[in-house]
Automatic annotation (TrEMBL):
UniProt GO cellular component terms: plasma membrane
Database matches in Pfam families: BPD_transp_2
Protein name: Ribose transport system permease protein
Membrane topology: Multi-pass membrane protein
PANTHER family in the record: ABC TRANSPORTER PERMEASE PROTEIN YPHD-RELATED-RELATED
Alphabetical UniProt keywords: Cell membrane, Membrane, Transmembrane, Transmembrane helix
Transmembrane helix recorded as keyword: yes
Molecular-function annotations in GO: transmembrane transporter activity
Length: 328
């Protein structure tokens, strides 16, 4: 083999490896584009501006809890309570709105405080008492779910004034408030995780908590902060969902924690902590909501939608594990 041939062969191998690495790195982007192309081909309705807005509106409440879940998972934990916290905060917000009609700020503040309190309890139990996150948040899931029924005496809170719907349905610059909150949240947390000392500490705690502690990172405070933020975002999501339907429901948010975890995992975060991005979570969330919307348009039964999402989650984790092995 001549020297020129050897160089050419090495160059081809190098180019193939670069392309392969790029394909692995941007696998979810490629999948999302393929999914969009497929649905646009199958339905002219899918690619309309109105449908894009519908996808964004549906994604907004999930985005808030997915952002909180991202922070928690980056530390190597998990928050199973966000769905029940959504229910509890929606009920307390609805009760507040019914007690103080015409005041739109107070229900929002109450919902955030309720969510923050639940998240702070999770953070305290995990960071101070050292209860495993799975157990701690599972307990909060049950507690918050029960309290949601207590607030409404076992029934939804109806009969709210129509102006309560303005919290979620008011448009600014052509976008509803939840969509704007989603955009601000993604950009804000995306910058915070990459450009602030706190963000670096979150990654450090998830990557190697012992090394982080030796380096002077107060791991307990970091853990407390991410669970508190996750709870507050769940509270905000709860009042937005309640405002959208102008009612408080003790079952609102049921199962939402699973979709939030799915978005984080599909976005490339490791459940072991220390690896993942807010941008990846946003991509995973968009992929899930695009699938939901497109499959609804094609009238695919809900149970088949769950099958497809399950396959997607397993595939995302498999690709992540395979890529991690290649980096070793």
């Amino acid at each position: 083999m001549t020297s020129d041939t050897a160089v050419t062969t090495r160059k081809r191998r190098f180019d193939a490896k670069v392309l392969q690495n790029l394909a692995i790195r941007y696998a979810m982007v490629i999948v999302l584009l393929l999914v969009i192309a497929f649905f646009m081909y199958r339905s002219a309705r899918f690619g309309t501006v109105d449908n894009v807005v519908t996808i964004l509106v549906a994604a907004a409440p999930f985005a808030l809890i997915a952002l909180g879940q991202t922070l928690v998972i980056l530390t190597g934990g998990i928050d199973l309570s966000v769905g029940s916290v959504i229910a509890l905060s929606s009920m307390t917000a609805a009760l507040t709105a019914k007690s103080v009609p015409g005041n739109l700020i107070l229900p929002v503040l109450v919902a955030i405080v309720v969510g923050l309190a639940a998240g702070s309890i999770n953070g305290f139990v995990v960071s101070v008492i050292k209860v495993p996150p799975f157990i701690a948040t599972l307990g909060m899931l049950t507690l918050a779910s029960g309290l949601a029924f207590v607030v409404g005496n076992g029934a939804p809170i109806n009969g709210l004034a129509a102006d309560f719907g303005a919290i979620a349905n008011t448009q600014i610059f052509g976008l509803t408030i939840p969509v704007l909150l989603m955009i601000v949240g993604i950009v804000g947390f995306g910058i915070a995780m990459r450009r602030t000392a706190w963000g670096m500490r979150v990654y450090a705690v998830g990557g190697n908590p012992i090394a982080a502690r030796i380096a002077g990172v107060k791991t307990g405070r970091v853990l407390f902060s991410v669970y508190a933020i996750s709870g507050a975002l769940a509270g905000l999501s709860g009042v937005m969902l309640a405002s959208r339907v102008i009612t408080g429901s003790p079952t609102l948010g049921q199962g939402y924690e699973l979709d939030a975890i799915a978005a984080v995992v599909i976005g490339g975060a490791s459940l072991l902590g220390g690896r993942g991005t807010v941008w990846g979570t946003a991509l995973g969330l968009l992929l899930i909501q695009t699938l939901n919307n497109g499959l609804d348009i094609l009238t695919v039964p809900a149970y088949w939608q769950d099958v497809i999402k399950g396959i997607l989650i397993v595939a995302a984790v498999a690709v992540d594990v395979w890529a991690a092995k290649r980096r070793v």
